[in-house]
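ok new one. same drill as before - structure tokens go in, u give me an amino acid for every spot. 290 of them this time. try not to just spam alanines like last time pls lmao
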């Protein structure tokens, strides 16, 4: 089962005088990189989050933010009269010094900083428990998102692996023709220069066999088929293994390159180019696999 490193989750709940919200998102990264934005009243949650999240998410650049929003209610709001009086006195004093006319309106005064105080009662144990539950919901939503996107990645990646397998099997039909053509080409070259060189036919036949063995791609195709099979088995395993799949993809690439260098056939070279193109797309997708 392939899982993506990209994910998003959110949750929220209403408390007595405020609304709690939490968001968590992740993108691809070689290691686990966590950034937490936790309000002062919830700093006690941070150690547990730093302990749990690496185990749950394993890899990726993770950003978790949480906070509170005040509910639109006048309950608990008080006007700081002493601050308003100080503002008024200071403005009147300044107006007198600068010989300015005009009075401050109440609407201007209440728009100034620290005029309103809102009571912010501490969080109860019940509130903390509800917040913990909301955080877990957001994390689970991110995990579900990763699995959902992972299914799409798995479908595309396995389709391309099967296309590589299918392409390599096609080369079987051209293998005998390739060997025959190479043998005929060498024989023609020797025959054209028979008058110049004294040829030992037995030795010549041995050299052709040796040369054709060096160009034989049977081993490469066997290894390539094995790597493709192992890749599919790993992709369908219960645990997502992005690093392991990356390594297998490198081995597949090595065999494709060797096959291409030995091919000496236009049709086989075309198949190799198509296989390389599919493999590059697979590697791009694997950067985002957990």
């Amino acid at each position: 089962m392939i899982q993506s490193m990209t994910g998003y989750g959110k949750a929220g709940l209403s408390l007595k005088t405020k609304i709690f919200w939490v968001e968590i998102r992740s993108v691809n990264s070689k290691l686990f990189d966590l950034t937490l934005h936790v309000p002062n009243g919830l700093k006690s949650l941070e150690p547990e989050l730093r302990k749990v999240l690496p185990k749950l998410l394993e890899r990726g650049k993770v950003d978790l933010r949480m906070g509170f929003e005040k509910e639109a209610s006048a309950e608990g709001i008080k006007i700081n009269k002493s601050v308003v009086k100080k503002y008024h006195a200071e403005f009147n004093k300044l107006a007198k010094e600068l010989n300015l006319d005009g009075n401050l309106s109440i609407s201007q005064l209440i728009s100034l900083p620290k005029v309103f105080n809102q009571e912010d009662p501490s969080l109860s144990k019940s509130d903390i428990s509800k917040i913990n539950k909301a955080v877990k919901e957001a994390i689970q939503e991110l995990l579900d998102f990763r699995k959902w996107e992972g299914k799409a990645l798995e479908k595309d990646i396995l389709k391309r692996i099967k296309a590589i397998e299918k392409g390599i099997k096609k080369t079987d039909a051209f293998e005998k023709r390739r060997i025959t053509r190479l043998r005929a080409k060498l024989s023609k070259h020797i025959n054209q220069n028979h008058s110049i060189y004294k040829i030992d036919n037995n030795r010549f036949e041995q050299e052709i066999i040796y040369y054709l063995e060096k160009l034989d791609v049977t081993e490469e195709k066997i290894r390539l088929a094995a790597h493709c099979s192992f890749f599919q088995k790993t992709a369908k395993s219960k645990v997502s293994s992005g690093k392991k799949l990356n390594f297998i993809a490198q081995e597949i690439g090595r065999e494709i390159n060797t096959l291409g260098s030995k091919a000496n056939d236009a049709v086989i070279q075309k198949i190799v180019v198509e296989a390389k193109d599919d493999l590059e797309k697979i590697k791009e997708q694997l950067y985002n696999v957990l």
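Residues 125-170 form the longest helix (46 residues). and btw DSSP finds nine helices and six strands in the chain.
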